[in-house]
């Protein structure tokens, strides 16, 4: 829950063990623009799902702090 909440506020714990991804190209682009605004170039990758990935909205339901982001979190990184 804290990981999902931190995305919007800028208080992401980079050592929490999760990597954020999105089902939405638009959300990925907006995250790139806001988080990496100091860089002129950033990359968006298309990745395959893996067993360590879960849909944040499915897990948190009505408690998902940013359901519009369509976030999928990967525990331990992207394989």
From TrEMBL:
Entry-linked SUPFAM superfamilies: ADP-ribosylation (SSF56399)
InterPro entries, per database record: Enterotoxin_A
A GO MF term: toxin activity
Recorded GO CC terms: extracellular space
Entry keyword set: Disulfide bond, Enterotoxin, Signal, Toxin, Virulence
Gene3D superfamilies: Heat-Labile Enterotoxin, subunit A
Similarity annotation: Belongs to the enterotoxin A family.
Protein name as catalogued: Heat-labile enterotoxin
């Amino acid at each position: 829950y804290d990981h999902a909440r931190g995305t919007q506020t800028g208080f992401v714990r980079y050592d929490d063990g999760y990597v954020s991804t999105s089902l939405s190209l638009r959300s990925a682009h907006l995250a790139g623009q806001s988080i990496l605004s100091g860089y002129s170039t950033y990359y968006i990758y298309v990745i395959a799902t893996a067993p360590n990935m879960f849909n944040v909205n499915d897990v948190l339901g009505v408690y998902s702090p940013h359901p519009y982001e369509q976030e999928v979190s990967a525990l331990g990184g992207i394989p």
